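Collaborator request, handled under Task 6.
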Amino acid sequence: MRSKRKFTHLVVENKIRMKNPNYDPTPKTSSLIPVRWRPSRASNPIALIIDKRLTTGPMWDEDTINFWNATYSQYRRRNYGFKNDSHNVF
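Structure tokens returned to the collaborator:
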């Protein structure tokens, strides 16, 4: 019964923390996790780069976004999906 009460306490405590706009769920840095993954915004997303060593960096840069937008615009399927044709089901 005690473990159930402790679990309930932890759940309630976590919900209270999550409602706090200043709450930071990332762990403190240590020898195991030597980098802190800072919160990011939609306008400037930050990625956690898992390689030989952990680092953080921008999810993308302006040149990369422009490249993929141009590629998508050029090669996307224009008439993708079902046609509005009552004779053909597929």
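The cover message to the collaborator said: "Strands lie at 46-50, 54-58. The CA atoms of residues 82 and 88 lie 10 Å apart. Please let us know whether this matches your experimental observations."
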